[in-house]
Amino acid sequence: MKIKNEMRIDFPASPKNEALARMVISAFVLPLNPTIEQLADVKTAVSEAVTNAIVHGYPEGGGSVRLKAVLYEDDTLLVDICDTGIGIEDVERARTPFFTTAESDERSGMGFTVMESFMDSVSVKSKPGQGTTVRLTKRLQAPETYPSARRA
Question: What is the pTM of this model?
Fold first, then answer.
């Protein structure tokens, strides 16, 4: 499939950069004229993945996060959020609702569940001591193909 556009940004794994990731992905998909719902879905999923990378990938602080996005001709968006942090020991367990490794924090353990509810697919590749890549995929349909847009 042919690539329509792509971008990559690396930033320090700091909570203040969660907002940066949301704005960058928004600017990247805006030329497609997504619905407000589509834009919110993508921003929320990216924010959850970046938060997971920061909080769980680097529990002692430091490190960096890479956000890479590719937009294909059929308007499929692929977003990779990568860290080189501590990795995930058991990916399937980590994807279980309410599971968290940040017990001392007020974390809900719903990050992957949230990502899955807003995206068409979510995949996770991780190796302990080497980091994690979360891949988010969503087909961004033109607003006129949405049932609510046709009713108006």
Answer: 0.83
- Give me the active site residues, please: 48, 52, 107
Report CA torsion sign: 74, 71, 113, 118.
negative
What residues contact residue 30 under an 8 Å CB cut-off, 6+ apart?
39
Residues 85 and 141: their CA atoms lie apart, in Å, by 34
Give 58: exposed, middle or buried? Use CB within 10 Å, 0-12, 13-18, 19+: buried
**pLDDT, tens only, 69-104:** 999 999 999 999 999 999 987 667 666 655 565 555
What backbone phi and psi angles, to 5 degrees, belong to 70?
Answer: -130, 135
Long-range contact pairs involving 36-42 (C-beta distance under 8 Å, separation at least 24): 38/138, 38/140, 38/141, 41/118, 41/119, 41/138, 42/77, 42/79, 42/118, 42/119, 42/136, 42/138, 42/140
Residue type for 53, please?
A: A
| Rounded-to-integer distance, Cα 40 and Cα 52, Å | 18
Query: By three-state DSSP, how is residue 137 classified?
Result: strand
The phi, psi pair for 130, rounded to 5°, reads -125, -10
